[in-house]
Write a structure and sequence with these properties.
This protein is mostly beta strands. It has one helix spanning 3-18, and strands at residues 21-22, 25-26, 35-37, 55-58, 66-69, 86-89, 95-99, 107-112, 118-125, 130-136, 142-146, 162-167, 173-177, 186-190, 196-200, 213-218, 224-228, 233-237, 243-247, 253-258, 263-268, 282-287, 293-298, 312-317, 323-327, 332-338.
Length: 339
């Protein structure tokens, strides 16, 4: 069967199985919203304003603490080397620690591994820094860097705008490389010590191809979920890069998070009636078992005129089930709690 035909069939099956279409609008936009905004959570940073942020991830100790990397009061840390960009908040939104001043150009993705190390994907460069993935201790000590500082390209240790990072339970490192639609568009796998293993992907829309692999997550079975944003889907692979299936019911996936119960949370921060007809922006929630949407937190601007990001681009869930949306445009992190 030609790949183009398989792509269309997969799209129709995924949408039909997961949503109903009513009056030309996918009904998943009307799925129940069992969450309320926790007004005022972490609303202020000491002595300055929030910057844009797409990077949010819970601590591993079950405390409810949340790591956030933001862009130094603006949408880049260039010229702001005196400001910390990585923060740890307690459940009440108080800052427990901060670090990262002068180390990161454009924090984009974040991951906390099972040893509590904090990984940051730096998705831009200034000629000296950037286009790298960094591993830090919880105190901010730099342990390892992947990629070549300040250099954009394509090689075993050269990235061009890496989007996200994930470390599997066995220590394997996965990097989603390529922010532009026509960029590197690949997933790279490394050993725990940073040794290159393999990569897969290229620009395109067929299985195993990407247009902006924007986010990574892994379920309890060890399957890797890639938010293939500009292809309006999530692709699922095993850890060797073998394609399993793709899902189209989540819209333009900017952020993907899977919790300890194998519930998947997907932030769509870019859909509108022109870029992805029938899909409203917001956070969609499903089980990885079947991908059926069971809840939807709508974006305050579900169909804005502009094509840019409005509300949550990054998404994470703490041990208590609270959801956190990291917002680029509004420059804040919003916490959602159960009603």
């Amino acid at each position: 069967m030609p790949q183009s035909v398989r792509f269309i069939i997969s799209l129709l099956v995924a949408i039909t199985a997961s949503v109903a279409v009513v009056g030309g609008v996918v009904a998943q936009n009307n799925s129940p919203n069992p969450y309320l905004v926790d007004e005022g959570w972490a609303s202020d940073l000491p002595g300055r304003e929030w910057g844009s942020t797409s990077a949010v991830f819970p601590s591993r100790d079950g405390s409810g603490n949340i790591w956030v990397a933001e862009r130094c009061g603006q949408n880049s840390c260039v010229g702001q080397d005196h400001l910390d960009s990585v923060f740890l908040f307690d459940p009440d939104g108080n800052i427990l620690t901060s670090w990262g001043a002068g180390l990161i150009v454009w924090p984009h993705g974040i991951f906390v591994d099972h040893d509590d190390n904090v990984w940051i994907a730096d998705a831009r460069g200034d000629g000296v820094r950037g286009h790298q993935v960094h591993k830090f201790t919880p105190e901010g000590q730099l342990l390892m860097s992947l990629g070549t500082a300040g250099v954009a390209g394509k090689g075993r240790n050269v990235f061009d705008q890496p989007n996200d990072i994930l470390v599997s339970p066995n220590g394997s490192i996965f990097v989603a490389d390529g922010h532009p639609q026509d960029g590197n568009n690949r997933i790279i796998k490394f050993e725990a010590d940073g040794t290159y293993i393999k990569e897969w992907g290229e620009t395109g829309s067929n299985p195993g191809q990407f247009r902006t692999p924007h986010a990574l997550a892994m379920d309890s079975q060890g399957l890797l979920y890639v938010g293939d944003r500009s292809n309006r889907r999530i692709q699922i692979f095993d850890q060797e890069g073998n394609f399993i299936k793709d899902w189209f019911q989540f819209g333009r996936a900017s952020g993907v998070f899977i919790d300890q119960h194998d519930m998947i949370y997907v932030a769509d921060s870019e859909s509108n009636s022109r870029s992805n007809e029938g899909y409203s922006r917001g956070i969609r929630i499903a089980s990885v078992t079947d991908g059926r949407i069971i809840a939807f937190i709508p974006d305050p601007e579900p169909d804005p005129d502009n094509a840019g990001t409005t509300a949550a681009e990054g998404v994470a869930v703490d041990a208590m089930g609270n959801i956190y949306g990291a917002e680029v445009g509004p420059r804040q992190v919003v916490r959602y709690v159960k009603r």
